[in-house]
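S1.2 Input.
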Amino acid sequence: MTPRHRLIVLCVLAFAAAAQAHAVNATARADATVHRTFLLGRSVDGHTITAVEMGDPDTQRKTLVVGCIHGNERAGIAIAKRLISTELPAETDLWIVTDLNPDGAAAGTRGNADGVDLNRNFPWHWQRLSGTYYSGPRPLSEPETRVAYRLIERVRPTV
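S1.3 Output.
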C-alpha cells in the first residue's frame, strides 16, 4: 500500500469519526453544503464510477476519500455515503468516491472483474504480482485505476 493510499484510509477513518460526532447537526443543515457529482468513468463491466465534490473548490485544503477499492471490503462504502451528509469544516474541498470497484463489490471479490487487485495496479512501485494480489499486466491497466489516477492528479489532495 502506497503512502497516498494509507493517507486515504486514514482520511476515511477520521471523517467517519467526524460524521458520527456531527450526525444530528449535519442532518439539520445538509442544505448548507453544496454537492457536485461527476461521472469519472466506467468499470470493466460498465458500472459507473462517480465522485461527489463538497465544499469550497477554491480552497487549498483538498481531501479525497475512496470508500471501497477492494470489492470484499465494503464497510467504507457506508462511511463514504455518510460523509456526503456531513457538514464540512470551513475552507475544505472534499471529494468522495463511494465505490471505485463496483464489479468487485457486486461479486464480493477483492479484485475487479479482471481479477486485478486495484490497489496493486497503480504505477508507484508497481511490481508483477499474482494470486490474490494480482497486479494486472502493467500499471494502470484497469479502467478503475486510471479513473482514480486521473482524479488524484486533478484534485491533488493535501489530506
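S1.4 Remarks. The longest strand covers residues 35-42.
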